[in-house]
Amino acid sequence: MNASIAPNETADGHRPLLPGVRVRLDAASCLPERFPANTCELCVEACPLALLESRGGAPRLIEAATMQADSCIGCGQCAAVCPSGALHVDGFALPAELPDEAELLVDCWRVPAAESPAGTLRVPCLGGLSAGWLLSLFDQSGERPIRLLERGQCAECPAGAGIKSLLAAITETRMLLFECGVDMSQMPMLAWRPCHTPLLPAIPASMAEVPLPRRGFFRSLLGESLKAVEATRPAADSGPITLRSPMQPLQRLRLATALTGIARRHDRPLPTRILPHLSLGACDANGVCAAVCPTGALQKATPAAGQAELRFESLRCIACNQCARVCPERSLRLDVQGGEAKPVVLASWRQRECIRCGSDFSDPAASAEPASAAGLCSTCRKTEALSRGVAAFLRPTLGSDVSQP
Amino acid sequence: MAKWGMVIDLEKCTGCQACSTACQMENNRLPGENYQDVLYYTEGKQPAPTLSWFPRPCMHCEEPSCMHVCPTKATFKTEDGVVLIDWNKCIGCKFCMIACPYGVRFYTDEKPLIEPNIKSVFKGEGDLSWNPPYKGPQQDASHGVGIQPNGVVSKCTFCYHKISKAPKGTPDLSNDDPALREFVPACVRTCAPTARYFGDLDNPNSKVNRLISAKKGVRLLDHTGNKPQVYYLTGGGAAGGAIPSSRANDKKA
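^ inputs. structure came back:
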């Protein structure tokens, strides 16, 4: 559970939505797929071509008669907004070795390579950039200023709606960097560099198709190797997805890692903007919240024999609110910001052995004395109540003096 | 479509627990985690207390509270009225165990109830919790039938692997008809005093329906609104009949 293990871009377990489509999905990480009552439709709303629908589960491409696999242009805007990293679009990986320029330029794949200044980072669409991506680049480049090249042709591009999400990502990034104490001039910003040559007709399918003057050759090699990996991957429907193991919220971890590094460098605390805060009221120690947490941010831990505690790790939390939604006592409250960077212990319980069935259960009362019903687990308490009720119900004449043997 | 239900005649039940044992064998359960048990309790005070008992299977409610709370919709009700768990979807959060008013759901992964841990002696392959030396051929994780995987909640399925194969439109599944015996749930099949009946509650001519109406079958904890599909025959000693309510009024009159 270490936020610093965030890999740059990992897509294991992601399968194309349809053969040949550039958007890949890891259904086990998709919130509505895990929890049918979850109504997250951020990807559906983000798609500039309105090609996605969710129907109360993982997103899929709309099955229209005119719909072809190449209708999806691979702009990556759906993946940029996905809170759990369930969607993935290739082409947004940061290169292992960044250019040496003082200013990092980011350009769109549709711009002819010759038009991009030397050392420019190229991505399929700027709309597919998230705050996590920008912060990660900022962190890895040693806090060099990032200039996102605006080519003046987004309005005519089918993915043009993405400029809005790009602006949102930049604003979010700048606010986080401001809280970290980064100088305004170093922050990422849009740079107006109109492109006068015509753009490529569409976003190329991969970097291999983009002739690049410098590192393109190596990039294309990487692309080929990714394709080879792709070919050996099992088919999309190879058995049911496993929901019992927590997923890795890679996007979230990437953002947290980058921001932790930046904040530490500037000697500031981690901005509470990105730290969800969880508060707990009266608790019955059932641990349902910890069991449903999709990322393992909320955990029931046993620090010592006979003890249990509810531990919350804000850095892993994607604020899906599922814990608060399932709490049987309605005692949890999630605020999207204002938490602490360190793991917090929300409650401590005493682990007891049920005197009837012998199973371990958590007693919400931390005192040494058994809380209620003489040390019975909740199921055995229920059984006892049922026996009492049945006796009174079936044989009302005998009175209600019932005891268990 | 059928709506399977069970009738348990408490006047006939001898509390022998053959049903619990049969359930354990049929569903590869260990002692203490069989899908149904017999609850014993004492009534009255010294010097003349009496021991009473009643079997407690899953009630397969018409309005299962366990199903309504399930965050992954792993618990579902089949068209023929059986409440099942899809083990592929269950994440073992145990909310259903809190919601169930009857306490008939099991989560067995935390601690072995008997030592030595039999499940570690017969280790299961892959995700399965164990590999019992004797096991049935049925294994259907999407209906919660067979050996359970690790980390899921399990419960009585009305022996879904048997009853789902019964011919359509059968009013009753009982030992009386040799052709139907293999479709009878294990607890009903094994019940020596024939205190259990199993049949279609939607069929007005089924034996279960006739017994419920003739002997004023009652449902446990009816005030919860769960509407169990397991009825108990009490020999007329009950405080109130379950359905229809008019019959309960008749009795008071």
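Chain B is about 20% helix and 15% strand. Residues 172-252 of chain B form one domain.
thumbs up if we can close this ticket
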